[in-house]
Write a structure and sequence with these properties.
19 strands; six-stranded mixed β-sheet; Rossmann fold; 17 helices; about 35% helix; single chain; globular; alpha/beta
């Protein structure tokens, strides 16, 4: 017996800002089937989700929601019948909290916090009395595994816990369909396993699930069909098994030959005209005089009864590229915010940046002039109405928006980075119109135009498709290997370490659990481990040999 239709898209087109997308797109979802949606960055995956949600205007064709019993035509979507979870919601919550903090400080309510329970209640669309809400919340919290999180400060939970909370918020409205837009982004290995189990449980009920993803391993067996998009259009559908074939994957993501675009290999990057110019610009007078970039001595960061860092010691010197590795909640983000000045407890600890002790009279702008940052969290902070090109240029001034005229040389430098990142085809578009992955590429160029002494890569591949992930890692490796910029690369595991990394710092529960020096050359296997007492295992490479080889490689490019 053929399954009844659940949702039908009939030759639709939608308008986003001043452009048309999903032109002449059709898709039929049958009852009981769970779909995965694939496609490269900017192909229209999130736009398709927003169209189904009714968040963007459908200007041609129609969408029919066959499950709507109170609407015979099936075209008027009721609130809460479709749930949606995306990384943008995570960033919006944190941005809202930052704005609330300013008003709390102004009004004197500095001890006021937003809890997970507050966020859940905000997402409830129908009115209920307190007992009904409490009963439903308790049931959903148990199902999603967040019962212990409900009373906690929203800022004291990890990315994995935030993702589960957002799913719980959507489930409170008892949706018929749940759309999960990149739910695994930013999660460590354990959180990914937990998220997978949760999604599998959800698919066993009456609710249907659509998963938007870039990582093929996230398409678990419960998803029977795959839809893929290309250049703002639905390009085809197939069964899950067919979508996982290498030839189909190459077709979906436009991968040529051995899977690496000719212009984006490490060797071609380093030898390009743009790269040679960038290397020259990075040799700025005075940068090589700074010996210690970061030094933290017995740093302790506490939020009420919770320790984010516990007697944390770490030193990063010139000509070193560090990877900070650890699970959700290990303290990596706290370390970064101490460096960037976003955590005011920096003044209550002994921390040195660029050979100067924090709190010795330097301004926050002097510190940030030396730092470039790439993080998906930044996307919510910047104005969406300026062009991608102007967003890149704003990196010269560390400004939110572009309010000063760039010099001729600055415009040339911005052009070099736009060409190297291969983002010229959307440089004139408004930043807000770009996909998550496209914004990440723009923010990379923005961070590097000023040739910073320190580049912070906070999970830089979050939201990137296969090719753009490769591009970002290759260019990050070029920066760390051939320029005077030093890297701090933050990730949950060592599976995506780049060859230029010279040191690895492992963290857990706010403490250093190990340090090692990586031997030179591609891959750099783990050969030297340090424990907290300073002892290390025998290695074929000494720290001085590693750094000397790196300096020798770099000097050849002068």
């Amino acid at each position: 017996m053929c399954a009844a239709p659940f949702i039908t898209l009939e030759n639709i087109a939608v308008r986003l800002y001043d452009r048309r997308y999903l032109e002449n797109s059709s898709w039929r979802i049958k009852t009981g089937r769970h779909w995965a949606v694939l496609g490269p960055n900017g192909s229209g995956k999130t736009t398709l989700a927003l169209a189904i949600l009714g968040k963007v205007p459908v200007i041609a064709g129609r969408i029919v929601y066959h499950f709507l019993n109170d609407d015979p035509a099936g075209t008027r979507l009721s609130g809460g019948s479709i749930g949606y979870v995306s990384p943008d919601q995570h960033r919006e919550i944190l941005l809202k909290e930052a704005m609330l903090d300013e008003s709390r400080h102004f009004s004197g309510n500095i001890n006021e916090v937003t809890t997970v329970g507050d966020i859940l209640k905000e997402g409830l669309l129908d009115r209920q009395d307190a007992s009904q809400f409490k009963a439903r919340l308790s049931a959903i919290a148990v199902e999603t595994g967040i019962l212990d999180l409900v009373p906690r400060n929203i800022r004291a939970i990890s990315k994995g816990e935030m993702s589960k909370m957002l799913i719980a918020r959507a489930l409170l409205n008892q949706p018929r369909l749940l759309i999960l837009d990149e739910p695994f982004d930013g999660l460590d290995k354990q959180s990914r396993k937990s998220m997978t189990r949760l999604i599998e449980r959800l698919m066993q009920g009456s609710m249907q699930v659509i998963l938007i993803t870039h990582r093929l391993q996230e398409i678990v067996e419960g998803f029977s069909h795959v839809l893929y998009l290309e250049k703002g259009r639905i390009a085809g559908t197939c069964r899950r098994a067919e979508a996982l074939r290498p030839d189909v994957i190459k077709k979906i993501y436009g991968i040529k030959g051995n899977g690496i675009n000719a212009g984006n290999t490490r060797s071609n990057i380093a030898g390009s005209r743009q790269a040679r110019k960038i290397i020259q610009l990075s040799r700025q007078a005075g940068k090589n005089k700074i010996q210690t970039l970061v030094e933290m001595r017995a740093v302790t960061i506490r939020y009420k009864n919770r320790l984010s860092l516990d007697k944390f010691n770490w030193t990063m010197r010139s000509a070193e590229n560090w990877a900070l590795i650890g699970p959700d909640g290990s303290g990596k983000t706290t370390v970064l915010k101490l460096i960037t000045g976003e955590n005011l407890q920096v003044y209550a600890n002994e921390i040195y940046l660029f050979d100067r002790k924090r709190g010795s009279g330097e301004s926050i702008w002097e510190i940030r002039h030396h730092i470039g940052i790439i993080s998906s969290e930044m996307q919510a902070r910047y104005g969406h109405q300026i062009s991608a090109f102007d967003m890149v240029c704003s990196g010269f001034f560390d400004s939110n928006g572009l309010y000063r005229r760039c010099s001729r040389q600055q415009l040339e430098v911005a052009g070099y980075w736009i060409d190297l990142m291969d983002i010229g085809h959307f440089a004139k578009q408004k930043f807000g119109m770009l996909s998550h992955g496209q914004k990440q590429l723009v923010l990379f160029a923005r961070a590097m135009v000023k040739s910073p002494l320190l580049l912070i890569l906070d999970d830089p591949c979050e939201g990137l498709d296969i090719e753009n992930r490769r591009k970002v890692l290759d260019i990050a490796d070029f920066v760390g290997e051939h320029t005077d910029t030093n890297l701090i690369y933050v990730n949950h595991s060592e599976t995506e370490l780049i060859p230029c990394i010279t040191h690895v710092l492992n963290m857990d529960a706010g403490r250093v659990t190990g340090q090692r020096v990586c031997p030179p050359g591609p891959g750099r296997p783990a050969l030297m481990w340090f424990n907290n007492s300073g002892h290390h295992a025998k290695s074929n490479y000494s720290e001085s040999e590693v750094l000397n080889e790196r300096k020798t490689k770099t000097s050849k490019l002068h």
